[in-house]
Amino acid sequence: MWFKNLQIHQLITPLGLSPEELHQRLETAAFQPCGSLQPETIGWDRPLGRDGQLLTHAVNDCIMLCATRQERLLPSSVVREELDERVAALEDKEGRKIGRKQKLQMRDELIVDLMPKAFVRSSRTYAYIDESNGWIIVDSASAKRAEELLSLLRETLGSLKTRPLAVRDAPASVFTHWVSNNAPDDFLMQEECELREPSEEGGIIRCRRQALDSDEIASHLAAGKQVVRLAVEWKERLSCVLADDLVVRRLKFLDLVQDQVSDANPEDAIARFDVDFAILAAELRLFIPRLLEIFGGLAEEA
């Protein structure tokens, strides 16, 4: 259940629903497996999986959600190969070349034939709502996947105003200053970063296992490159990669946090989920405000 990535969105208007009320609303868009001719489907699923009954799960005023997407795997190469065989067979039978319009029609008919036989693949995206702090946090490195979940939530509720995290100070300028000088005392820079020239077509340098105070890094900074991704550790509690798009990637909670889980000694899967969720939310309630602080606070709405 531990989130590995953070797409942080700000709640513009309060949700105003209890976990039970939200569950009832989500039931109208509950996940249903793909039908025989459906290429994909998405809907709300139980955060606790088989151990749960509701489409929401609340701990300490935070509400966990889960969206399940299922898609049928019908590779274009398979369709193309089968279509070529059908076209060749028909041309041999009728002694003529098959035109483009008829090929497109045959392709559509082929997809209808193959779709029910295609394998299906399911994926789950978790998010939780921290209404007291005004956040919706999605566990995804992909902006597309995060927006898919948020769009589903808006459609389900009829309306929900959110916006991606926006800050006053450009993250790349902040990271570049850290590498050129020093990071704040509570952040420890790791030996990994990405540097990029400011121009749209500028060069990109990705460094791993590279001392950030080396002459090589200094020369790139002197040439005008900016640090757009930076691996850090925070207060010996978590590590992650911060980026100029404000997505937190490769989030990992360290021993100080994991020891809290071990000390709780949960007895079953539900208790384990509750402990994990409670500790995750508590840590992020400290970490996210610190992120906002180092980037100069929230930007004003346009």
Rg over CA atoms = 24 Å
| Low-confidence segments | none
Termini gap: 35 Å
Give the topology string: H per helix, E per strand: EHEEEHHEEHEHEEHEEEHH
User: Judging from the principal axes of the Cα atoms, what is the shape?
Assistant: globular
Q: What profile does the largest beta sheet have?
A: 7 strands, antiparallel
Question: What is the number of helices?
Answer: 8
**How many DSSP-defined strands?**
12
The overall pLDDT, averaged over residues, is 93
Relative strand content? 25-35%
Q: What structural class do helix, strand and pairing data support?
A: alpha+beta
Helix content: 25-40%
Give a summary of the structure in a few sentences.
The chain is an alpha+beta fold. The chain is built from eight helices and twelve strands.
How would you portray this structure in words?
This protein has 302 residues and is an alpha+beta fold. The chain is 37% helix and 26% strand. The chain has 8 helices and 12 strands. It has helices at residues 19-26, 76-94, 100-114, 143-157, 171-180, 215-222, 255-264, 269-294, and strands at 7-11, 40-44, 57-59, 62-73, 119-130, 135-138, 162-164, 187-196, 204-208, 226-234, 238-243, 249-253. Strands 1, 2, 3, 4, 5, 6 and 7 form a 7-stranded antiparallel beta sheet that branches. The chain has a 5-stranded antiparallel beta sheet with strand order 9-8-10-11-12. It is globular, with a radius of gyration of 24 Å.
